[in-house]
Structure formats: C-alpha cells, structure tokens
Design a protein that fits this description.
Strand content: 15-25%
Number of strands: 6
Radius of gyration: 18 Å
CATH superfamily of the largest domain: K homology (KH) domain
Distance between the termini: 40 Å
Largest sheet: 3 strands, mixed
Structural class: alpha+beta
Length: 160
C-alpha cells in the first residue's frame, strides 16, 4: 500500500473521476473497482451495449492508455504520498487485446519454427510487448526479446 491514502481510497477517487468524465461526455456506463493485489487497483468501465465506449478506447487502445494516465494523475494529485498501480479498462478491451496478441504471437512463433528465421514484430507498447512475451514463455522452441528504444521498441521472436 502506498503511503498516505489506502488502495481502496485511491480506487474511490479514480471511480469518482471516471464517473464525472463519463457524465460530462453523456456516456451512460458503470464503473467498478477491483483490488487486484496489495498494490494494484483496476477500474472497469462497462455499458450495455458497449458501442459508445469505443471513443474511450481509441485506435489500438491509445485513448485508453491516455485515460489511464489522466486517472492516475488525478489520484496522485489527491494523495500526499506515492500512489499504487492504477489500471483502467473499458469494455474488456485489455483482456481482448491480450488474447488477440497471444494468438498472433503463437502464429508468428510457428512461422519462426518452420523457417528457422527470427522475426521482428512492429513497435508496440510495453503492455503489448509483455503480452507477447507472456504468451510465448511456455514454449521451448522459441525465445523472445525486446529491442529498440521507446517509443519504437519491439519484440523479436527467434528459434530457441
């Protein structure tokens, strides 16, 4: 737990901010707070139907990433000490993105095994790189590594 305010209080501040933002955008959605572990809280924004939530995700999750940073900044501004990890998800985007990256990584890994040649993926965010590394960590026929400098850092999948 961070010094200053509890993880639950951080979640409450973040939830109130997101609810206010949604209201100002005339978006009807629910915001739920889940403590993932002792240092991480996730705020999930969901609506039925989720169609109007796409604006909060943006292309390839860029808007969602910015929304998470703004939410974290709001919580930090109300905390006398450091804050814990604050995650924001909209319409299960992150879960779907991790699954899609996992399927893609498996396909590329199979191509790498068949050709014997390593393959560099396109530059991606740290979270997406982690999803690729995690998806292939159980395989003993390929290895992964990250190369390059931010914001053009990418994953290389190579034969083991």
């Amino acid at each position: 737990m961070a010094e200053g305010i509890s993880l639950a209080e951080q979640g409450t501040i973040a939830k109130e901010f997101l609810q206010g933002l949604l209201a100002s955008m005339n978006i009807t959605a629910d915001v739920s707070v889940t403590e993932i572990d002792d240092e991480t809280v996730e705020l999930a924004v969901n609506a039925t139907p989720p169609t109007e939530l796409g604006i909060l995700v943006g292309p390839r999750g860029v808007t969602l990433q910015a929304l998470q940073e703004v939410t974290r900044t709001v919580v930090q501004s109300k905390s006398p000490g450091r804050t814990d990890r604050i995650l924001v998800d909209v319409a299960q985007y992150r879960e779907r993105r991790v699954a899609a990256l996992g399927r893609f990584a498996e396909k590329v890994a199979q191509e790498v095994v068949e050709t014997g040649e390593e393959r560099a993926l396109e530059p991606m965010s740290a979270a997406d790189r982690k999803a690729v590394h995690d998806a292939l960590s159980g395989r003993d026929d390929v290895v992964t590594r990250s190369e390059g400098e931010e914001p053009r850092r990418f994953v290389v999948i190579a034969p083991a």
